[in-house]
Amino acid sequence: MRIRPVTSDELPVLQDIERAAGAPFRDLGMAAVADDEPPTLEVLEHYRRAGRAWAAHDGDGPPVAYLICEPVDGALHIEQVSVHPDAARRGVGRALLAYAADRAREEGLAGLSLTTFTEVPWNAPYYARLGFRTLEEAELTPGLRKIRAHEAELGLDRWPRVCMRRD
């Protein structure tokens, strides 16, 4: 598996990955998540230009997974990490998170943060296995509170969510 910065011509592929990765949410009764549109090309381009969009490639083919992130309150916040189901269970997501952790260290950031669903097996339980811990309400930084408020506006709080961090 090779990880590298996303190129502009790969942005539509990232949207396809997002749609495919969202489909399994339907089986959990989360059709709204499954049907949610991926980030727009403009949003993905913003992350790409900022140097905050990385893709995992299996050989020389197109991306099979991607991660977008941004610094939030001293940590590198994972905005989205998505793996195409055809590449699932092969350590691709883990590799992308390790790559992001290396970038965070290079930038002097204290670790990684993310928000996620608590009851989705490939969300909070998966991240906990990778060393992330759930943050208590009192530990939430202003930036994380703002992210959670935005998620609530989008209706994501219909299902339990948490903020997690790995130092």
Automatic annotation (TrEMBL):
Q: Which GO terms describe its molecular function?
A: acyltransferase activity, transferring groups other than amino-acyl groups
The keyword Acyltransferase is annotated on this UniProt entry: yes
Where in the numbering of this chain does the N-acetyltransferase domain appear? 1-151
Keyword vocabulary terms for this entry: Acyltransferase, Transferase
Q: Which domain of life is it from?
A: Bacteria
InterPro entries to which the protein is assigned, alphabetical: Acyl_CoA_acyltransferase, GNAT_dom
PANTHER family (alphabetical): PEPTIDYL-LYSINE N-ACETYLTRANSFERASE YJAB (PTHR43800)
Q: What is this protein called?
A: GNAT family N-acetyltransferase
* Lineage per the UniProt record: Bacteria, Bacillati, Actinomycetota, Actinomycetes, Kitasatosporales
